[in-house]
């Protein structure tokens, strides 16, 4: 009785969250993050439990075959959904259909050749195996593609290990005690469904949390970066600088104003799209030349800003020279032209400054130095007088 009530609640949870996942996936348009796949996983499992309730107990019927197939197909849908969340473009229908056809055929074969116990044991055994694969994927993800979600992934691995162990135990109980092990009033069944109900309560909100985290991270990134070059914009740079100066280890910083020489000429000669490609090229050189902790940004136009943290004036002049030489040396391939394009930069360097509120002053100093560099012939570095 209690186990049946639990299964009923489980159905309600799964089907409600299936609808919620589907609604969220509709709101996400092109970037669904696997929510439509999770909706399908919940729907399959919810329907499987509805069929189980309708059956009443172990039986050999079409309903039971469909129930087992849905039960096994649901973790496959979740697994594919997780792949989607982490940016792998995997299909849904083909793998699900393949699982459904293969597993239905396997059920008929096992029922005829080995009997009903073997068919039920096959479901528990296959589920345990599938969940084991999921746990291994999640642990692999923690070390590779899902590093950003370390805590969440470990939490999921622990929860899935629980279902994996329970299915493995059910498999052994079935081999040991036959179909009696599936009696709903057995203690093991009770524990099994209490665990499944807890999962149905905890997992869906956790999945929604993952999506929310990804969305807010994307939004924050969008607000902090220049869309053309992906360098920090003024807001991103100011926030990063404030975080740096708030840390106890912070030492004074220097600001470099980097300006492409005669950029208007490049735009006028080759067109705006090539001008944009040159901006992206310069951004890439900045990104790869500055040190790990330094900040590189573009506030619009052909001017870039680099903030050197944790370096004295000699180190800053060294970096500025490295940037200037790298830009001068590297050729930019222009589509539709046999001749690679070369450009140069002029760099103005501010005096050191020690808090984010004086960023504007540092910019003015670096800008004045830059102006002097331009007037003195370009392709050079000019330091603000101390
Ligand atoms: N392609 C492209 N051009 C831009 C962008 N933003 C600003 N520009 C162009 O950058 C050019 C800047 O030219 P100027 O400020 O006259 O300076 P310059 O030609 O680089 O000359 P100097 O700085 O004196 O060496 C203008 O032609 C702008 O239209 C952009 O996002 N993309």
Automatic annotation (TrEMBL):
Record-linked PROSITE patterns: GGDEF
Reactions this protein catalyses: 2 GTP = 3',3'-c-di-GMP + 2 diphosphate
Residue stretches spanning the membrane: 6-25, 37-54, 60-80, 92-114, 120-142, 154-172, 192-212
UniProt GO molecular function: diguanylate cyclase activity
GGDEF domain: residues covered: 251-386
Entry superkingdom: Bacteria
PANTHER family: DIGUANYLATE CYCLASE DGCM-RELATED, REGULATORY COMPONENTS OF SENSORY TRANSDUCTION SYSTEM
Protein name, UniProt field: diguanylate cyclase
Organism this protein belongs to: Acidovorax carolinensis
């Amino acid at each position: 009785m209690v186990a049946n009530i639990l299964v009923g609640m489980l159905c309600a949870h799964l089907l409600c969250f299936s609808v919620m996942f589907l609604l969220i996936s509709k709101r996400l348009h092109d970037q669904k993050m696997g929510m439509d796949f999770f909706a399908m996983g919940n729907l399959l499992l919810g329907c499987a439990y509805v069929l189980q309730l309708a059956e009443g107990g172990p039986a050999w019927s079409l309903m039971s075959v469909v129930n087992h197939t849905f039960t096994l197909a649901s973790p496959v849908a979740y697994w594919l959904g997780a792949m989607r969340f982490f940016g792998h473009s995997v299909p849904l229908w083909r793998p699900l259909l393949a699982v459904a056809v293969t597993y239905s055929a396997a059920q008929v074969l096992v029922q005829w050749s080995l009997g009903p116990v073997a068919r039920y044991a096959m479901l528990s055994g296959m589920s345990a195996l599938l969940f084991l694969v999921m746990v291994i994927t999640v642990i692999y993800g923690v070390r590779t593609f899902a590093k950003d979600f370390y805590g969440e992934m470990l939490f999921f691995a622990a929860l899935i290990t629980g279902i994996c162990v329970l299915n493995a135990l059910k498999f052994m109980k079935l081999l040991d005690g036959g179909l009696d092990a599936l009696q709903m009033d057995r203690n093991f069944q009770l524990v099994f469904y209490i665990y499944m109900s807890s999962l149905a309560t905890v997992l869906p909100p956790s999945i929604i949390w993952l999506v929310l985290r990804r969305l807010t991270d994307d939004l924050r990134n969008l607000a902090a970066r220049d869309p053309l070059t992906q360098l920090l914009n003024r807001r991103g740079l100011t926030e990063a600088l404030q975080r740096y100066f708030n840390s106890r280890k912070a030492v004074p910083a220097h600001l470099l104003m980097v300006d492409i020489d005669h950029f208007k000429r490049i735009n006028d000669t080759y067109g705006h799209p090539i001008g944009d490609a040159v901006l992206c090229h310069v951004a890439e050189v900045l990104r790869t030349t500055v040190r790990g902790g330094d900040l590189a940004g573009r506030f619009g136009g052909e001017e870039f800003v680099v903030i050197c943290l944790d370096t004295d004036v000699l180190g800053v002049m060294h970096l500025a020279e490295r940037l200037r030489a790298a830009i001068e040396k590297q050729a930019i391939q222009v589509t539709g032209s046999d001749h690679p394009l070369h450009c140069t930069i002029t760099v103005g360097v501010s005096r050191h400054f020690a808090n984010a509120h004086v960023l504007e002053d540092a910019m003015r100093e670096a800008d004045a130095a830059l102006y002097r560099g331009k007037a003195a012939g370009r392709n050079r570095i000019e330091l603000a007088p101390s």
